[in-house]
Amino acid sequence: MRGQEARDQAERKAVMATLAQSTGDDIVRLWKEAGLPSEAELLRGPETGLVTVRGRIGGGGAPFNVGEATVTRATVRLASGEVGHCYALGRDKQKAKLAAIADALWQDPTRRNEVETKLIAPLQAALARARERRRAETAATKVDFFTMVRGED
Amino acid sequence: MYVAVKGGEAAIANAHALLADRRRGDRSVPALRLDQIVEQLALGVDRVMSEGSLYDRELAALAIVQARGDMIEAIFLVRAYRTTLPRFGYTKAIDTGAMLVERRVSATYKDLPGGQLLGPTFDYTHRLLDPELAAGGDVAEPLQRASEAEAMPRVSAILAREGLIEPDGDMPQDHIPGDITREPLEFPMARDIRLQALSRGDEGFLLALGYSTQRGYARNHPFVGEVRIGEVELELDVPELPFAVPLGSVRVTECQMVNQFKGSAKAPQFTRGYGLVFGQSERKAMAMALCDRALRATEFGEDVVAAAQDEEFVISHSDNVQATGFVEHLKLPHYVDFQAELDLVRRMRAEHDARENAGRAEEKREAAE
Predict the structure, then answer these.
(1) C-alpha closest to that of B109 among A95, A96, A145, A129
(2) Confidence class of residue B1 from pLDDT cuts 50, 70 and 90?
(3) Residues A86/B88, Cβ–Cβ less than 8 Å
(4) How far is A67 from chain B (nearest CA, A)?
(5) Can you tell me whether residue B317 is helix, strand or coil?
(6) Closest Cα of chain A to B303: distance in Å?
(7) pLDDT of B81-100, one tens digit each?
(8) Is B131 an interface residue toward A (CB < 8 Å)?
(9) Domain map of chain A by residue range?
(10) Closest Cα partner for B43 from B224, B233, B279?
(11) Tens digit of each residue's pLDDT (9 = 90 or more) over B254-265
C-alpha cells in the first residue's frame, strides 16, 4: 500500500510538473479540444506571489538565497469533492486555475485516463520535443578537438 | 521654525506627461511589444531580472520600456514591484548538476564529461557591426546534432574526486540561510548572505572589482573551472501537499572559479569562488565568483589590503538601487539645508573679514608708531 501511495504521489507530481512547465496557451487550447470541464469552486486564488529561489554554495554546498521569482497559485474543489492545487512560475492566473482543476480531475479515478491522454500526454510530448530540440541545437556547438600531426615522425 | 513650501504640482504633472511622450517617441514608428523585448533583447531582460532580483521576463521587459531603456531605472521599478507581492516560501535549492545545459565551457579541462558546448555565445565573433541585422533579414534555423544525453558533472566535482580542491562551501548543520530582504546587513557576514548580495549586485561594480583582483589588488590566480548556462527546475515545499510541488524552470548562469591553492600544514588544495545569477550572464557570474573568492580573504588568513577584499566596502556599495537612490537624491530640493550652509558661510566670511580688517588696522598703527 505504501508503495502504491508513493507511486501515486510521484505520478501526481509529474502531472503537476508538466502543467507548470507548459504555457497557458497550450493548456487552454488542449483543454478546449478535450472538452474538459472548467467549472470548479475556487478555494484560493488564483493569486500571484513570490518564492525565493535557493542555490547552493559551490553548486552542492550549503543553501543560499539567490533572488525572487513570481509564482501564481490556485486551489479548487470539484463538485465530486476532489481538491486540486497548482503552483506555477509566472503570473498567468487562467493557467493556474486550469492546472488546479486538472490536478483535481486527475485524482478522480474515473477521469484520470481522460486527463492523461487528452491533456498531459500531448503537453509532455510538446515539452519533450522542445527539450530535445534545445539539446540538439546545443550539441551542434560542441567542440570536437583534434590533434594536428606535424613533422615527419 | 519649519515652513513647508508647496508648488510645482502642475510642473510635475506636465513633466510626467512629457516623459510619456518622449518614451513613446515618433508615433510613426511602431510601439515596442513586450514579447519583442523578451525575445530580442533577452540579455537586457536577464540583467534586469538578476539585479532586480525578480525572475519574471515580461515584468522585466515592461520595466525596460517604462524606463526608456535605462537599466538601473528598470531594476529600480522591478525592486519596487517585488515589495507589493506576498511571499509563498523558499524553494528547495536548485541542482545545477541536473541543468538542461545550453552552454558549458571549462578553461581548466579540454576533455571533460559532457564536453565543451559553446552555445549562443559572443565569443569568437569579430565584433564587427552587422548591416544585415539593420536590414532585418531572415535568420537561418540553427543546426541540430543528434547525440546521446550525457551526464555533465560540475568540474568542481571532478577535481574533488582527487581531493585537489576545497569542498563546496558548507555552513553549520543548523544554519538557516540568511536573507537580506528580511534582515538588515551586518558585518562581518556569513558567506551565504554575501552571495545573495553579490547575486543581485551591480554588474559593472562587480566587474570592476573582479578586474581589480586580476590586476594585482588581491590577486588570487583564477581559472574558470566552468561556466554553465541553462534551465533548472524549481520545487517548493507547501503544507497542502505531501511532496515538493514543481514550479517550472528558470534559466541561470553558474561560474565555478578555481583559485590559488592553499595549505602547507594541510595538504594543498585549490580554493574556490562561486557565482550564480538569474538569466544568461556569464560576465556577471564570473565577476561574482572573483569577488566571492576575494571576500574570503580572512577565511584563508590572507591580508586584507585591497578594495575587493573589504566586505563592508563591497557589499555596502554593490546594490545599484541603493547607490542610485543616494546619489540621485542630491538633485532633490535641499533648499533649507543649503540656506543653513549659506548663512554659515556668510557669517564665517564676515568674521574672517572682520579679523582681516582688525589685522590691517593693527599693522597700520604699528607702522605709524
Answers:
(1) A145
(2) low
(3) no
(4) 5
(5) helix
(6) 23
(7) 999 999 999 999 999 999 99
(8) no
(9) 2-132
(10) B279
(11) 999 999 877 766
